């Protein structure tokens, strides 16, 4: 009785003997697509070529088997637990071919069904706008959030109270059905239960079997003092309700602090421009500054103050979150020159000019002014 000699595995795949694993996988994938039984129905020759390519790949993709084969040929695999084509032994075939023909488990090697388990609900995000005063003081806001909540009637099971989901008789509760496709055993999602492994004979009347109901939830958000744009506040368990009794997700409140008409924020510090008259800048004065938390501060304008000069009010800025510390307020002076003068004012200023008050003083240029303003 004669037997047909097996072809060299490298020849079967059409690769060199020093081919990399990537090249071997690519070659096998091309042959599998070409000779797959679904594309060649009632073609025994194509089926044999597919088996031959799969057998070659099973050996050459395994480093130990490949080493024995390179040294001893086909005889080196005898007695090593390899006796030709055996789809159930090749666990990674599904990774290579599983998506080519729409099969989730191409060779039937992973037969345990993906039974639907309880699943955590999605996290949600809500945008909350605040003005700078609210961000500085902290605030409690009421918000309304549309979300899917676990049905209170069936507790998320989807079954009418007094009943329970039943195991799917089509797939036996596994969520998958097996059938033959040529010489292959193929697993697909059960068409009767959609892969859940269970069916609802008596769906909940409140949620129609979905296990969740869409509602608008009224919630309170406590915003701590010192928040800034881009910060997120987490409300644990206030996201979407879970599936099949799973835990709910979380709600993240994204903070947006709107621009202020007077203050410009820089982290914990605030910058404000205060207008002073030319006379106040020349002689010096005391001017009020309103704080962000409603305080009333005063600053002393030094005699000879120049436009852009600044003073710092320490501890008058934005609070630091969860701390008693605060930033500073930087007061920048804008010197306003009067457009009209009374005859007496003009006479006095002219007298001052004749006494030498119109001499210019060097102040180091623009960059020096900016440096002093930020000190």
In this structure, how is the largest beta sheet organized? 4 strands, mixed
Counting DSSP H or I runs of 4 or more residues, the number of helices is 9
Q: What is the average of the pLDDT values?
A: 82
Question: Which architecture of the largest domain would the CATH scheme give at its second level?
Answer: Sandwich
Q: What's the total number of strands?
A: 15
Order of helices and strands: HHHHHEHEEEEEEEEEEHEEEEHH
CATH level-4 homologous superfamily of the largest domain? Urease metallochaperone UreE, N-terminal domain
CA distance, first residue to last residue: 101 Å
Q: Which consecutive residue ranges, at least 5 long each, have pLDDT under 50?
A: 86-92, 101-114, 362-367
User: Under CATH, the topology of the largest domain is which?
Assistant: HSP40/DNAj peptide-binding domain
CATH class of the largest domain, please?
A: Mainly Beta
Give a description of the structure:
The structure is a single chain. The chain is of the alpha+beta class and 375 residues long. It contains nine helices and 15 strands. It has helices spanning 9-13, 21-35, 44-60, 63-72, 93-97, 132-137, 278-283, 343-357, 365-374, and strands at residues 124-130, 139-150, 166-167, 176-181, 184-189, 198-199, 212-223, 232-235, 251-257, 264-266, 269-277, 285-290, 296-301, 310-313, 329-336. The protein has a four-stranded mixed sheet with strand order 10-11-15-14. Strands 1-9-8 form a three-stranded mixed sheet. Mean pLDDT is 82; it is low at 86-92, 101-114 and 362-367.
